[in-house]
Specification:
The protein is mainly alpha-helical. It has a single domain, classed as Aminoglycoside 3'-phosphotransferase, Chain: A, domain 2. It is built from nine helices and eight strands. Helix 2 packs parallel to helix 6 (about 205-220) and helix 4 packs antiparallel against helix 7 (about 225-250). It has helices at about 1-5, 45-65, 80-95, 105-125, 175-185, 205-220, 225-250, 255-275, 275-280; strands at about 25, 30, 135, 145-150, 160-165, 170-175, 250, 255.
Length: about 280
C-alpha cells in the first residue's frame, strides 16, 4: 500500500469486505487478493532491462521511508543456514532421483559449489557487508515477478514495467541483495527450447550494463562496499537458488540434478572471472 501510494507500479490489493484490510486471516492461513494486471513477461532486450533497473531503483527509494521498527524474520541467502542444510542433503536427493548418476562426478560438483559459496561468503563479509545500510527490499527481484506492458516492444516503443508482483520474500536487508539477484536473472542467457543444463555459462554483458544503468539513474551514488561485494553476492544468490530446490527433489524442475548443478558451476566460474568488470558497473 505504501508503494502504491508513492506511485510505484505494483499490483493493487483488493481490500477485505470487513474493514477494507489488506489481508484476510482464516483458519490459520493468510490470504491476499490482487487486482488483475494485463501484462507479459520480459523480452530479453536492453530497453526492458534498463526499465526493470529503473523500477527497482524507484522501489528502493520509496521503501526507505517505510517504517520497519520490528520487521518480521525473513532469512536471505547470504550465509543462510537453509543453504548449508541443502548442501548436506543435495547429494542424497540427486541419487534418490537418479540411481544411475555418476556419484563421483556428483560429489565433485557439489564440493566445487560448496567451495564457491564459502569463498563468496568470505568476500561479502570482508567487503563490508555489515556496514551496508538496510531497508525494506523486494527480496525476489527477477523477470517472473515483473509484468511489462502487454504490447510487443519495438525500437521506438520499448516495453515498460506495468506491475511488480510477489512480495512474499520482502524483508529488511541491504538493497544490494535485490540488485545482485536482479542482475543475475535479468541478464541470464537462457533458451526456452533448451534444458537449463545446456544454457551458456555467461550472462549478457549488454543487459547487465542496461540493468545497472537504469538502477543507478534513480538511486544516484552507490556505497563503495556495494561495488566491492556485488560479484560475490551474485555468486551466493546463484548457488542458493540452485542447490536449495535440487536438495528437495533431486532435480531442478524436470532437469536432472547433476547436469543442472554442473551448469551452475560453469556459470559461477564465469562470474568469478568477470568480477572486475561487474564491480565497474557500479563505479564508472
Amino acid at each position: 500500500l505504501h508503494l502504491e501510494r508513492r506511485g510505484v507500479p505494483v499490483a493493487a490489493l483488493v481490500g477485505t469486505r470487513e474493514g477494507n484490510g489488506s489481508i484476510l486471516l482464516d483458519g490459520g492461513q493468510v490470504y491476499e487478493l490482487f487486482h488483475w494486471v494485463d501484462g507479459r513477461r520480459m523480452v530479453k532486450v536492453e530497453s526492458e532491462a534498463i526499465n526493470a533497473g529503473r523500477i527497482l531503483g524507484r522501489l528502493h527509494l520509496e521503501a526507505r521511508d517505510l517504517e520497519w521498527s520490528d520487521p518480521p524474520p525473513m532469512p536471505g541467502f547470504h550465509a543462510a543456514a537453509q543453504v548449508e542444510t541443502a548442501f548436506e542433503r543435495v547429494t542424497e536427493a540427486v541419487v534418490a532421483a537418479d540411481a544411475d548418476v555418476d556419484r563421483v562426478e556428483l560429489r565433485n560438483v557439489v564440493e566445487r559449489l560448496a567451495e564457491i559459496r564459502h569463498r563468496a561468503m568470505e568476500q561479502v563479509e570482508a567487503g563490508g557487508w555489515s556496514s551496508l545500510p538496510v531497508q525494506p527490499i523486494h527480496g525476489d527481484w527477477h523477470p517472473g515477478n515483473v509484468l511489462f506492458t502487454p504490447e510487443k516492444p519495438t525500437r521506438t516503443r520499448p516495453g515498460t514495467v506495468r506491475a511488480i508482483v510477489d512480495f512474499d520474500a520482502s524483508r529488511v536487508e541491504p538493497r544490494l541483495v535485490d540488485l545482485a539477484n536482479g542482475l543475475l536473472h535479468f541478464a541470464m542467457r537462457s533458451d526456452r527450447d533448451a534444458s537449463p543444463a545446456d544454457w551458456p555459462p555467461s550472462l549478457s554483458p549488454r543487459r547487465m550494463m542496461a540493468f545497472t544503468r537504469g538502477w543507478r539513474a534513480v538511486v544516484g551514488d552507490v556505497v563503495e562496499a556495494e561495488a566491492v561485494i556485488l560479484p560475490a553476492l551474485m555468486l551466493e544468490c546463484l548457488v542458493a537458488e540452485s542447490v536449495v530446490p535440487v536438495a528437495k527433489t533431486g532435480r531442478f524442475a524436470v532437469v536432472p540434478g547433476l547436469p543442472f548443478l554442473a551448469m551452475v558451476v560453469r556459470k559461477a566460474a564465469w562470474i568469478e572471472e568477470a568480477a572486475a568488470p561487474i564491480r565497474e558497473l557500479l563505479v564508472r
